[in-house]
Amino acid sequence: GNSVTQMEGPVTLSEEAFLTINCTYTATGYPSLFWYVQYPGEGLQLLLKATKADDKGSNKGFEATYRKETTSFHLEKGSVQVSDSAVYFCALSDRSGYNKLIFGAGTRLAVHP
Amino acid sequence: NAGVTQTPKFQVLKTGQSMTLQCAQDMNHEYMSWYRQDPGMGLRLIHYSVGAGITDQGEVPNGYNVSRSTTEDFPLRLLSAAPSQTSVYFCASSLRQGSLPTNTGELFFGEGSRLTVL
C-alpha cells in the first residue's frame, strides 16, 4: 500500500540556519505530494505541493522537488526563522479524485534565536 | 470566513460512554474526512465522505461511525469509548480534485478536538 516516511524529529536549529526535512514515499502510479504545517494549537495548513515528477513546490521560502527516481520530496529552507517552529507533515494523494491523503509521522522543528 | 468548524475542542469521557464530535464547513466542499493524530504516527484516516449520503472507511474505522446527511456537516460518533481512542481528532474538507481550475487539491482542516478517555 501507499505510505510516507519522514525523518524523525525533533529538529533543533538556530535562526538563519539551513533546513532539510527528508520525506520518501511508496506509491503505485503517480501520486500528488504535499507538505503541511501545524503551528502550536492549530490545525494543519497546506505549505506547498507538487503534482508530477520534477515539479518544484514553493511557499514562504520553503521548497520541495518531486523526485520520482528517488521517490522523495524533501523540504528545504535556506534561512529559518523562529516563527517557522512547528510540526511539518509530508503527505501523498493517490489521485482518486479526492484528497484522501496519507501522512507521514510528522517532524517537529524548533528554531532558537 | 469560518472554514471548517469542530466542536467541542476538549472532551473527557469515561470508558463506555458515547459522544459525537461535530464538524461543519461552509465552503460547499464535496469531500469531508476525519483523521486522528497520535504521537509518532502522524494523521490516520478514520472515515471519509465524497458527498451527502455517501461515506466510506479509512485506515482506522473501528469504534467510529459517521453519517453525511448534508453537504455541510460530517459528525463522528463514538458509541462506546475506549482508552485507545484518546487522541486529537481533525476534520478536513476539500473540493473534488480538478473540479475547478483554481482547485489546488488542498485539504482544509479544523482546529482539532482533543479527546481523553479514562
Instruction: Output the radius of gyration of chain A.
Output: 13 Å
User: Which blocks of ≥5 consecutive residues of chain A have pLDDT under 50?
Assistant: none
The pLDDT mean of chain A sits at 92
Name the beta content range of chain B.
Answer: over 45%
**Radius of gyration of chain B, rounded?**
14 Å
Low-confidence stretches of chain B: none
Distance between the termini of chain B: 36 Å
Secondary-structure element pattern of chain B, one letter each? EEEEEEEEEEE
Largest sheet of chain A: 6 strands, mixed
Secondary structure class of chain B reads mainly beta
Biggest interface, which chains? A-B, 26 and 28 residues
Quaternary state reads heterodimer
Shape field of chain B: globular
Query: Major β-sheet of chain B, in short?
Result: 7 strands, mixed
Q: For the terminal residues of chain A, how far apart are their CA atoms?
A: 41 Å
Give the topology, please.
The complex is a heterodimer of chains A (113) and B (118).
Chain A: E1 3-6, E2 11-14, E3 19-21, E4 23-26, E5 32-38, E6 44-50, E7 56-59, E8 62-65, E9 75-77, E10 86-93, E11 102-103, E12 107-112
Parallel strand pairs in A: 2-12
Antiparallel strand pairs in A: 1-4, 3-9, 5-6, 5-10, 7-8, 8-9, 10-11, 10-12
Chain B: E1 4-7, E2 10-13, E3 19-25, E4 31-38, E5 42-51, E6 54-57, E7 64-66, E8 76-78, E9 87-94, E10 108-109, E11 113-117
Parallel strand pairs in B: 2-11
Antiparallel strand pairs in B: 1-3, 3-8, 4-5, 4-9, 5-6, 7-8, 9-10, 9-11
Please give a structural write-up.
The complex is a heterodimer of chains A (113) and B (118). With 113 residues, chain A is mainly β. Chain A has strands at residues 3-6, 11-14, 19-21, 23-26, 32-38, 44-50, 56-59, 62-65, 75-77, 86-93, 102-103, 107-112. In chain A, strands 2, 5, 6, 10, 11 and 12 form a six-stranded mixed sheet that branches. Chain A has a four-stranded antiparallel sheet with strand order 3-9-8-7, with no helix packed on it. In chain A, strands 1-4 form a two-stranded antiparallel ribbon. Chain A is globular, with a radius of gyration of 13 Å. Chain A starts with a strand and ends with a strand. Chain B has 118 residues and is mainly β. In chain B, strands 2, 4, 5, 6, 9, 10 and 11 form a seven-stranded mixed sheet that branches. A four-stranded antiparallel sheet of chain B has the order 1-3-8-7, with no helix packed on it. In chain B, β5 and β6 (54-57) form a beta hairpin. The mean pLDDT of chain B is 91. The interface between A and B is medium-sized, with 26 and 28 residues.
